[in-house]
Write a structure and sequence with these properties.
436 residues; Elongation Factor Tu (Ef-tu), domain 3; 2 domains; 16 strands; 15% strand; globular
């Protein structure tokens, strides 16, 4: 059996690895570095272009539950993420260069994987294929997908946060802590008083942004709004969002800040930090000018400025089965952000399920449809449910899962969701041992 996987991002890497481990011969296509994207900096697989965080590890968070489910499914991404982990409180964050290099090393050295560095513009419908080209799918392949599905590709804008050097920070003003003292207190916090915040806010909302092309609409994914767009919603919007001071006490002053900008470690050595929640489309000179107004960042050195890019996804509820297989093209599967899931771990997880279903199909086994009580099962149900009329990308969420009738506190309810999900997934995998 020979399979094609197009795209070596998080989803494509998971899919290729799963199939190769099953003895399948995989041809893995990756267009980088032959053809570049607006935001990738290397030709490595699974390169993280926005945050370096895979979000919370707590089982009271849907993202934490999804990671536990992925571990049970044998995720390559989580295995390597643990190897390349950097301190980030209760979140799983990685040294992004080490992470992508390790994924690349594993896949390129696998005896069952052949890597071809070229752009795919036409699809061979007779070849079993997983399309995992991500939100930065090339325009040529996007048109090919639109032609095959008979529907116009949708799109939205996404943005990445700036990265700073630790040596350029002013630690006379910055304090180390995590909210509510959770984890090991590994976030750097830049506290603001009311005057500092309001001055910063005024400059932010009036700062010059990179103009969009005339034919492109301003469509942002609500979970990743540029900081300047969020700020324009109201003077206090940021204080109830990424700059919220709750759960933090400045040990330098023994007081709660009026607002706080958090920095998260971005590499293994702790020499680089990213600005949490500061996805932006400001011009680079404006980023320097405005962001250096934050206390502690007066002389900040930017190793990467924030950028904004076009993210593409298909109207999956209309074109995919609940196995992630195209309704009209047997043996063709879609995985990753292009399928309408949003987030690193969500993208990676769909790669595993697409690969499991492709392998099962060609071994004449039952479809792999996880219980709706699981985080991943409920997420895939969301992106493939044909009843959606106004489909939008979605992060994993407890809100997608069947509710409990019994009334519980929020924390108890979320923990109960996780316990039920992991139990149901273990039962499912016990019955389908051939998948692992």
């Amino acid at each position: 059996m020979k399979v094609v996987v197009i795209g070596a991002g998080l989803a494509g890497s998971e899919a290729a690895y799963y199939l190769a481990q099953k003895g399948v011969k995989v041809i893995l296509y990756e267009m980088r570095p032959v053809k570049k994207t607006p935001v990738h900096q290397t030709g490595n697989f699974a390169e993280l272009v926005c945050s370096n965080s895979f979000r919370s590890l707590e089982l009271t968070k849907a993202a934490g539950l999804l990671k536990e489910e992925m571990r049970l499914l044998g995720s390559l991404v989580l295995k390597v993420a643990e190897e390349c982990r950097v301190l980030a409180g209760v979140a799983l964050a990685v040294d992004r260069k080490k992470f992508s290099s390790r994924i690349t090393e594993i896949l390129t050295s696998h005896p069952n994987i052949k890597v071809i560095r070229e752009e795919i513009t036409k699809l061979n419908l007779k070849q079993p294929t997983i399309i995992a080209t991500g939100p930065l799918t090339s325009s040529s392949l996007e048109k090919e997908l639109a032609r095959l599905t008979g529907s116009k590709s949708l799109y939205f804008y996404d943005a990445a946060s700036p990265i700073l050097t630790r040596d350029s920070l002013n630690f006379k003003k910055i304090f180390l802590a995590s909210r509510y003292n959770k984890g090991e207190g590994n976030y750097l916090n830049c506290p603001m008083n009311k005057t500092e915040y309001e001055r910063f806010w005024e400059e932010l909302i009036s700062a010059e942004t990179v103009p969009l092309k005339e034919f492109e609409k301003e469509i942002y994914f609500s979970g990743c709004l540029p900081i300047e767009v969020m700020a324009k919603k109201g003077k206090d919007t940021l204080r109830f969002g990424p700059l919220k001071p709750v759960g933090l006490i400045n040990h330098l002053t023994k007081k709660k800040p009026y607002a706080v900008v958090q920095l998260r470690q971005d590499d293994f050595t702790g020499s680089l930090y990213s600005m949490v929640g500061f996805q932006t489309n400001l011009k680079w000179k404006e980023q320097e000018r405005v962001f250096r107004m934050v206390p502690g960042l007066e002389r900040a050195e930017f190793v990467r400025f924030g950028v904004m890019h076009r993210n593409t996804y298909l109207n999956s509820p209309q074109v995919l089965k609940n196995t992630l297989e195209f309704r009209d093209y047997p043996g063709f599967f879609l995985a990753g952000q292009i399928s309408g899931v949003e987030g690193y771990i969500e993208s990676a997880a769909t790669g595993i399920i697409a690969a499991m279903n492709l392998w099962s199909k060609f071994n004449h086994l039952n479809n792999v449809v996880l219980p709706l009580t699981t985080a991943l099962g409920s997420l895939i149900n969301y992106v493939t449910n044909p009843h959606h009329k106004n489909f939008q990308p979605m992060h994993v969420s407890f809100g997608l899962m069947p509710p409990f009738e019994k009334k519980l506190s929020k924390k108890e309810r979320f923990l109960a969701y996780s316990q039920r999900a992991l139990n149901d997934l273990k039962i499912f995998l016990e019955k389908r041992k051939e998948l692992l």
